[in-house]
Amino acid sequence: MIPASFDYVAADSTSDAIGLLAEHGDDAKVLAGGHSLLPMMKLRLAQPSVLIDIGRVFELAGITATADELIIGATTRHAALASSELVRADAPLLAHAASLVGDPQIRHRGTIGGSLAHADPAADLPMAVVALGGTLTLSGPSGSRQVPADEFFLGYFETALAEDELLTSVRVPRRPGVPWGYQKFVRRANDWAIVGAAAIAGRVALANMGPMPLRARAAEDALAGGASAAEAARLAAEGTSAPEDIHADRAYREHLARVLTERALKHRSSAAHAD
Amino acid sequence: MRVEFTVNGEPRSADVEPRTLLVHFLREQCGLRAANIGCDTTSCGACTVLLDGESVKSCTVLVAQAAGQEVTTAEGLAPPGELHPVQRAFRAEHGLQCGFCTPGMVMASVSLLAENPHPTEQQVREGLEGNLCRCTGYHNIVRAVLTAAASDPAEVTA
Question: B25 to chain A: which residues are within 8 Å by CB?
């Protein structure tokens, strides 16, 4: 399979990329690692007439730290995120999530910005950034704005990014030593979560329990009220709208959400296979 | 569009359509047929090559994205007539059955050992998560990678 024809332009800076987006509008798609976009283009599920490659905009890649936050450039690859000493120490949930995306080849190419902008509700990094209470920087012709992860994901593959905006970085709080849990239930190697749950500091996020990564608010409220992990986890599926597919019906996904939330709240981390 | 990059140490200047995928360019324009097109959906790993030393699935990389970079295929691992230590280990341990997945397995293994020269068996299995063997010959493949890891590390990651 090959994608339909398109014009290719390589941006050489962030402002160049934003200028190109303004020039080409909704005919254009931004190419970072390409590991969500190119498969969709091969299947003609996406058919942009222009690709704006930000893969060589070096200022968009890399991880830096302020006193309270890690700032992760949009084109930072999953492999770099998973192996970064800074991320492993100060946001280990995020490093762990990155280490579970796809497989090593995919992690060598895929980027955090690409994963977040693609907004697959079953993906690891959107759930992780929601659990962490991250903030996304969206940059357009009239400047930049900060959007909390909770407000970034709007629906299936739909985000708060405007047509002329580029996701340039993600900020997450530095929380070394704070207990966390991450559960990803998959049946096959190299797969998306059938259901995922990530928990840290009283926040719980779920993957593949609705059109976007969701907070398990009822469980969070119970925790805030002093409930145990087991008691709170019983409420994890409340307010969700899990999809049904060949892997699982809604009732099974709701069961998984409760079980995985309890495990995540007990600060256990694994890529849970059918066990 | 014109793209300049290096394939197995040789500079290449390619005049390609922007939509040209790396695996097609390698097979059809360079005549390098080691990288196979298996699933064509970033799953099976048969098309795995190295891009600046890191394993990638060449069915999901545009030639344009490889500009200025170094591509290595199984043909480029060792001089003609010689075998890379990982290739040697695959032969010694019979790490192949039909052979279709083998070039991708070898390239993924070279990348794995470059990142982790002394992996445990579990790390090898997880490190080859992106490569499928439809003959299900995984045991000997894992054994081959462990054998290669036990040989001279400097040689393996070279």
Answer: none
Domain covering B2-76 in this structure, CATH number:
3.10.20.30
What is the number of CB-based contacts under 8 A between chain A and chain B?
79
Residue B15 sits at the chain A interface (C-beta within 8 Å): no
Nearest to A204 by CA among A141, A123, A267, A117: A267
pLDDT digits (tens, 9 = 90+) for A6-26: 999 999 999 999 999 999 988
Alpha carbon separation from A268 to A130, A144, A249, A275 (Å, rounded): 18, 37, 25, 14
Q: Which residues of A touch B24 (CB under 8 A)?
A: 2
The single residue listed with the structure tokens 């080409």 is: A24
Yes or no, beta carbons of A51 and B18 under 8 Å apart: yes
Question: Which residue from A241, A272, A67 is spatially nearest to A156, judged by alpha carbons?
Answer: A241
* Domain residue spans of chain B: 2-76, 85-156
Q: Hey, what domains does chain A have and what are their CATH numbers?
A: 7-53 (3.30.43.10), 60-173 (3.30.465.10), 180-265 (3.30.390.50)
Q: Which residues of B touch A10 (CB under 8 A)?
A: 64, 67
Give me the architecture of the B85-156 domain, per CATH: Orthogonal Bundle (1.10)
> What pLDDT digit, counting tens, does each position of A207-246 carry?
999 999 999 999 999 999 999 999 999 999 999 999 999 9
How far is the C-alpha of B151 from the C-alpha of A184, rounded, in Å? 36
Put simply, the answer to whether A1 touches B108 (Cβ < 8 Å) is no
A chain contacts of residue B131, beta-carbon cutoff 8 Å: 103
Residue B94 near residue B62, CB atoms below 8 Å: no
Burial of A256 (0-12, 13-18, 19+ CB in 10 A): buried
What is the least distance, in Å, from the CA of A234 to any CA of chain B? 32
Q: Do A105 and B17 touch (CB under 8 A)?
A: no
